[in-house]
Amino acid sequence: MKDLLKHCEECDGWGTITIEHNGTDIPYLQDIVDYECMSCSGTGAELDIELIKERIDEVNDMIEGMKARMSLHSNFIMTAKKGLLHELAEKYVYKLDTCARGLGRLINYKNKLHKLAEN
Question: Can you give the pTM of this predicted structure?
Answer without folding.
Answer: 0.68
